[in-house]
Hints:
Layout: E1 2-6, E2 15-19, E3 29-39, H1 41-47, H2 53-56, E4 67-75, E5 87-91, E6 104-108, E7 112-114, H3 121-126, H4 129-141, E8 149-152, H5 158-169, E9 173-178, H6 183-188, E10 193-196, H7 202-205, E11 209-214, H8 219-225, E12 228-236, H9 243-252, E13 255-258, H10 265-276, E14 284-289, H11 293-301, E15 308-312
Parallel strand pairs: 8-9, 8-11, 9-10, 11-12, 12-13, 14-15
Antiparallel strand pairs: 1-2, 3-4, 3-6, 3-15, 4-5, 5-7
Helix pairs in contact: 4-5
Amino acid sequence: MKAIILDQPGGAENLKLATLNLPVIKNNEVLIQVKAISINPIDIKTRKGQGLYEKLKTEVPLILGWDISGIITQVGAEVNDFKVGEAVFGMINFPGHGKAYAEYVAVPAEQLAIKPANISHAEAAATTLAALTAYQSLIQHGKITRGQRVLIHAASGGVGHFAVQIARSLGAYVIGTASAANRDFVLSLGANEHVDYKAVRFEETLSDIDLVLDTVGGANTELSLQVTKKGGTVISIITGSSALIAEKAKEKGIHCYNTAVKSSGDDMRVLAKLLSNGALKPHIAQSFELDEISRAHQQIETGRTVGKIVVTL
């Protein structure tokens, strides 16, 4: 099979097309013929030697990627919930070795969900890591409830555009930050308000926020404390939030912490239901072929992708 391997960290040119043997599945796994994958910022960080690279650097060959959609071609002896020929999607082995940049991937069955018939493989692959991050942050960590005022930073991005839709589907009042160029897009997702972060300082114009999902990090997390009500929550998906910010949050009576996404078939099934009923729809900014993976990485590196980048096989 064809796969993209990383021999050493560095630029996008370090991603090399290789021919490898098919994966051998374990009893709890299925073999998937991959139809589409999606690219995330963690892919870029890891490729550069940051992110998960230290954890994965001893893997040979090192194959990046975690988001897939495809067709089951083999089923392990202990797998009862899936069968050969079914279309499935999921985020694979995160934060471990996903090996998604390949024509075939061995996947623990418990991390998968059936792909809804009303969406393409590209759309399914797009609705994995970023969508799971939004879902787990808002639902499991943020405990979002109907009627809350929710602020989504970088609302036009991969995680952000899913978070807006999920929050709105649960009856929250959603405010999204994005550039003026993406105002109409953010509002089309269901946001009640748009804040142009380039034109105004959100911390001076917003107040009484119940829940903040910060996908930017740094000073943005600390500034978010200024608009959050006492008893509210600020969640950052960017690692490295400082102890100083945590202390300031505690002084204000605000819950503030980092979250990290985890693979979950149960959560994927929730996303599948939202996709099926139209409450959730991924926006695919651009699609590439497998041998164009370096270009896909370069696009993500611009930091200006609206929605998601996918690679089809």
